[in-house]
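Recap for those who missed Tuesday's class. We walked through two folding examples back to back. For each one, the amino acid string is listed first and its predicted structure tokens come directly after. Nothing is annotated here on purpose, so try labeling regions yourself before you check the end of the notes.
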Amino acid sequence: MLETLKPIYGDKDATTLYVLALIRAVYGDVTAREMKYRYDTSFISEMYEAAVSESMISDFLESIGQRYLKIQEYMKEDAKAIQADTLLIDGTLRNSN
């Protein structure tokens, strides 16, 4: 995942995205307030250097979310790695109406 993110988002943003995803995967529904604590007290901080703080997370994720073409590029690259007989479903789109 990280190696697919790097060419699209650059090393710094890719690593930050990866770290945030790892924290959510390991600890579940972690709030922005808890993110720095979980990062600082886990093996993740020993393996990946990232600027993680409550104040930056919201702005960072909003900035990433506004770059739809990069999201689309990542999804296409990630989908290429899946075998032809595998069905990939994106269940992240929500209707806010």
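Example two. Treat it independently of the first, because the proteins are unrelated.
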Amino acid sequence: MQTITRKYEAKPGEDIRKIVLPDMLKRARLRKGKTQKEMGLLLNIPYQDYQKYEYGLIFPKRDRFLEMDEVLKMPGAAQIYEPKKRNLRYFIDHEEYK
């Protein structure tokens, strides 16, 4: 299996979560073998809304994000909304997100 290393870079003042999260969602969804439409059904939202999260067009609120985490079981995902505990290097360096 080929490993692809992603490089996440934020411009000054840009929230790195908005760069990391879309890629994290897509990788977790594919790992679970779900389609974007299936994710919409599981989350009880239009699949187009889920697509927007995955494409980085919108950023989910905490409650919605936690629902996604329940379905996708993303390692360390709860930290993304905990600013004091947030360690985004975890997401960048974690094997499942490479």
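Answers for example two:
The two ends are 12 Å apart (CA to CA).
Residues 17-32 form the longest helix (16 residues).
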